[in-house]
Amino acid sequence: MSAQVILQPNRDKSLRRRHPWIFESAVAEVKGRAKLGDTVDVFDSEGEWLGRGAYSPESKIRIRMWTFKKDESIDNGFFMRKLETALALRKRLFNSATTNAFRWIASESDGLPGITIDLYDNVAVVQLLSAGGEKHRSKIVWAITKLLPDVHIYERSDVDVRKKEGLEPVMGVLHGTPPSQVTVLENGLKIVVDIETGHKTGFYLDQRDSRAAAGYYAKDADVLNCFSYTGTFSCYALKGGAKSVTNVDVSQPALDLAKHHVAINELDEDKAQYINKDVFKALREYQSEGKQFDMVILDPPKFVDNKATLNRAARGYKDINMYGIHAVRSGGFLLTFSCSGLMPADLFQKIVADAALDAGRTIKIIARLNQASDHPIIGSYPEGYYLKGLVCEVTDD
C-alpha cells in the first residue's frame, strides 16, 4: 500500500484545478514510508482523495502529480498510454518526409512531470529531471521500445536541477547503439544533432517556428545571428534569400558545425561568416564602429534560473537588446527571444521597449513568436509557456 500525504487546510485549490505540483509548505503529514520517487496518494485535510504523484523528499516541489484518476496505477500501461497519446499528436503536427525531429514528451504538459523525450529520427534522447522519472526509468524505456521497436535511446540527465531532487547527473546509452551525432530533417533542411555533448538534448527544437520566421524576414537582408550556436537560424535565412549571414558565438565547435550546416544544405558558403567572440563584446564593437545589419537575431541562453535572479536577468536582457537594437539599420528587423520560463511575456516586451528608448530608437512589434507546437502548454499548467519572441521593426523615428 502506498504512503499517504495529507495536505494543510485550504492548500488543495491548485490541485483541484489539476496543477501538477504540490509544494513542501502545503504538506501537513506523511502517513507511511515514502522514499525518493515513490508513488503516494494525496488527500485534502478532510480526508478526500485528490490524486496520485511521485514523492520527492528533498525538493521544494514535494510531489509531482501523475494522475487524478483513482483507478489509474503508475505501471507500464500508464507510461505506454502517455507516450502513445503524445506520439499520436506529434504525428499529426509534422510531415515526416520533411521534419523527423520533435519533442515527443514535454514533461508536465504531456502528463509526465520532469520527463522530456526528444526524438531525432530513430534516436530518442531522454531527460529525467524528477524523482518520479528516475524511479520509473525502466518503464519509460520499455514503453519507448514497444512503440518504436527500431529506436536507439540515449539519456541526457546531466542537468544541475537534478540536485534539487536529490539526484546525481546521469548520461549514457539506455537502449540500442545510438550514434554520437544524428542528421535530421527540419522543414527540409539537414541538421546535425550532437546528442552526447550538444546543449539540452542536443538541439533547440522549440525554435523551429522562429527559424522558419527568420527565413521569411531575411530576404535580401544582411543578417547578424547572435548566440548562433550551430547556425540553424542562419541556414533558414540563407534559404530565405539573405544577402549575408554573420554568426557570433563563444563556442568554436558550434561555429564549425554551423559552417558544416551551410555546406550540407548546399547554401552559398561565400555569404556566411563565423565569429568566435562573446556576443556582448561583439555588439559593443559594432556600435563603436557604426556597423549595422538589416536583421539582428538575439537568441541568448536562459538568464533566469529562479525568482531571485529575475531582476538581474532583466538587466541582462535590457543590455543585450539595447546593443542589438543599435546594430539594426533603420527599417530593419530585430528578432529577440527569452527562453526563461520565469520571465513574463509582458515584462519581456517592456524590457525590449525600454532598451529601444535607451538606444534612442523606435521599435514596432510586428509579430510574436512562441515555442513550437510540439512543446504544448496544458491548460492547468501555464508555467509550460516559456519561450517568448518578438519581431520588431527598428527605426530612427
TrEMBL record:
| Record's keyword terms, sorted | Cytoplasm, Methyltransferase, RNA-binding, rRNA processing, S-adenosyl-L-methionine, Transferase
Q: Which SUPFAM superfamilies match?
A: PUA domain-like, S-adenosyl-L-methionine-dependent methyltransferases
Named from the GO MF annotations, one term is: RNA binding
Q: Which domain of life is it from?
A: Bacteria
EC number(s) given by UniProt:
2.1.1.191
* Pfam families assigned: Methyltrans_SAM, PUA_3
Q: List residues of the PUA domain.
A: 3-88
Q: Which CDD domains match?
A: AdoMet_MTases (cd02440), PUA_RlmI (cd21153), RlmI_M_like (cd11572)
Enzymatic reactions = cytidine(1962) in 23S rRNA + S-adenosyl-L-methionine = 5-methylcytidine(1962) in 23S rRNA + S-adenosyl-L-homocysteine + H(+)
Cellular component per GO?
cytoplasm
Name the predominant localization.
cytoplasm
Q: Which residues cross the membrane?
A: none
What subcellular compartments does it reside in?
Cytoplasm
Q: What does this protein do?
A: Specifically methylates the cytosine at position 1962 (m5C1962) of 23S rRNA.
Family listed: Belongs to the methyltransferase superfamily. RlmI family.
What protein does this entry describe?
Ribosomal RNA large subunit methyltransferase I
Taxonomy of origin reads: Bacteria, Pseudomonadati, Pseudomonadota, Gammaproteobacteria, Alteromonadales
Q: Gene name on record? A: rlmI
